[in-house]
Design goal:
single chain; 408 residues; Arc Repressor Mutant, subunit A; Heat Shock Protein 90; disordered N terminus
């Protein structure tokens, strides 16, 4: 059976505030009318550090314009950098170091969720359980010794009794997904039991599998030595993330998010949503409880066929292809650094074909493009990179980078 992090698979104390009178060594010459130093001082004093996007909002200046001022403050010892990539924050230099992996205070990315109906947004934190109690499937099972086919079969029987017109294809998807997710909980969560629920709302079937273990993202973060929980989501989104490479291929959470109209994972203070109807995904902060909760929304009219989805990514019995949403690797919609490129391309050599989806990405820099399409591609000839959904500005930079001569 496949698992979450080999085919199956928690929070940080806020840093201390600093004295508002602290001397921040920041150049204010960007714009005579903008007090960058004061803006940084206020952000550090009023909250647990700041992200570059927050400083952009506070000053009205660009990321590029602020970069050298932040760097000078870091070099002067006034502030320090914590985290990397989308998790980067700047705190007062005197702040105690974190002793637990950061969760990241992630807002709902407006661009990612802009097209999402209000009902979908509210469901991000609390999935709709609209059916009357008497029409819901709900049970809790001890994981120790639980046969892998018991829950899938019981749920399939309930679905047929509740809605005799349910298609074979939907039943097959449900049985596969529940078997994978329950197996994940048994193998990796450390939980004593698993809770399974299902309910109908209109033309949708909702299926939820949850446990009270250590959390799927913590399992992956600790086993693969990742920086934070957001990094764990990124690896899950790529696919084939496994803590048992000798016996597992990371199939569980590769296919399950692709089978539902909407997939949602809640664990360790984060929510990861994959909306296949909008062809989009996002991550947000979630103050939910312990363990892992995964909820699938399946459209009764247009359910995806398991065989078709698997065939699109598997060759010779192994996963050979993946698709990465580039925007999932940064808070904003701009990608300029080699560090961002390295986070994106990490472990992509596991695949023969990688589609890099640039949907909603507004700008890329030459360093980012070169790091991916020149440097990484040259050292990984066994992986084909296919950029897709590129806006004109991104397409221009990518083609320019590929056509220009190599630097000497």
């Amino acid at each position: 059976m496949g698992s979450l992090f080999g085919d199956r698979s928690r929070r940080a104390a806020p840093p201390k505030a600093v004295d508002d009178s602290a001397d921040m060594a920041v150049d204010v010459s960007v714009d005579a009318a903008v007090d960058v130093s004061g803006a940084i001082r206020r952000l550090v004093a009023s909250q647990a550090g700041f992200k570059v996007s927050e400083l952009v909002e506070a000053t009205g200046l660009t990321r590029q314009g602020l970069h050298r001022h932040i760097q000078r403050a870091v070099e002067a010892g006034s502030i320090r950098r914590v985290g990397e990539g989308r998790g980067t924050r700047y705190e007062a230099a005197g702040t105690e170091a974190r002793t637990t992996p950061p969760i990241l205070d992630l807002p709902v990315p407006e661009k990612a969720m802009a097209a999402t109906p209000d009902a979908e947004r509210s469901a991000a934190r609390r999935p709709d359980r609209g059916s009357p109690d008497g029409e819901r499937f709900e049970r809790s099972d001890a994981l120790d010794g639980l046969p892998e086919d018991v829950l899938p079969a019981a749920l399939a029987l309930w679905i047929r009794q509740r809605n005799p017109e349910t298609t074979f294809e939907l039943i097959e998807v449900v049985e596969y997904a529940v078997a994978q997710l329950v197996g994940n909980a048994a193998d990796h969560s450390g939980s004593e039991s698993v809770q399974t629920r299902a309910w109908f709302t209109g033309d949708r079937l909702h299926v939820e599998v949850g446990d009270t273990g250590i959390g799927a993202l913590e399992r992956l973060r600790s086993e693969l030595h990742l920086h934070d929980y957001f990094h764990a989501v990124q690896e899950l989104a790529k696919g084939k993330a496994t803590t048992q490479p000798a016996s597992r291929d990371g199939e569980g959470l590769f296919f399950v998010p692709r089978l539902a109209a909407r997939f949602q994972l809640n664990a360790n203070g984060l929510t990861w949503i994959v909306n296949n109807e909008l062809d989009d995904q996002t991550v947000m902060a979630d103050p939910g409880g312990p363990g892992t909760r995964i909820c699938l929304a399946l459209d009764l009219r247009t359910c995806r066929r398991l065989e078709t989805v698997v065939a699109g990514f598997k060759r010779g019995g192994a996963i050979q292809k993946t698709r990465c949403s580039v925007r999932l690797f940064e808070h904003g919609a701009e990608f300029f650094t080699r560090g961002q490129a390295e986070r994106l391309t990490a472990n992509l050599e596991r695949f023969a074909v990688v589609e890099l989806d640039f949907k909603s990405v507004e700008a890329v820099g030459q360093a980012f493009v070169d790091a991916i399409f020149r440097d990484w591609a040259a050292t990984h000839p066994g992986t084909e990179l296919r950029p897709i959904n590129m806006p004109s500005s991104v397409e221009f930079m990518v083609h320019r980078g590929l056509s220009s001569p190599n630097p000497t």
